[in-house]
Design goal:
alpha+beta; 4-stranded antiparallel β-sheet; 42% strand; elongated
Length: 120
């Protein structure tokens, strides 16, 4: 009878430890998924060359090069269009937590550039 109680106690203890381990792993995964993310969009354009863009429901306009920062939001795409006439270069670099995740550019007149952050 004592042997049966020890075995049952061992099985219960193993189950508790396994459950606690799984809960810790799941908690870690959920925590990673909800961590605050810092995004930056580096817009490169010549001085005096103007552009307009959107990140989700946020719109931004500017002239020349600028760095736009966004915190605590999920970014699937950034779209920027040239507003100043000409074949000048417009380049976008999308960074997540300081690492470049996508880069694109255009020299087309009134060209549009889209960078994608949906995989991050």
């Amino acid at each position: 009878m004592k042997l049966m109680l020890k075995i049952a106690g061992g099985v219960v203890l193993a189950f508790v430890l396994l459950t606690a381990g799984c809960a810790a792993l799941l908690g870690s995964a959920v925590n990673d998924a909800t961590k605050k993310k810092t995004w930056q969009v580096e817009v490169s354009a010549p001085e005096g060359a103007c552009w307009s863009g959107s990140v989700g429901s946020v719109t931004r306009d500017g002239c020349g090069s600028k760095t736009l920062s966004f915190k605590d939001m999920s970014i699937t795409a950034v779209v920027v269009q040239k507003q100043t006439d000409g074949h000048w270069p417009l380049r976008l670099d999308l960074l997540r937590n300081g690492e470049v995740v996508d880069s694109k550019g255009t020299s087309a007149q009134y060209g549009v550039v889209t960078v994608d952050g949906s995989d991050f």
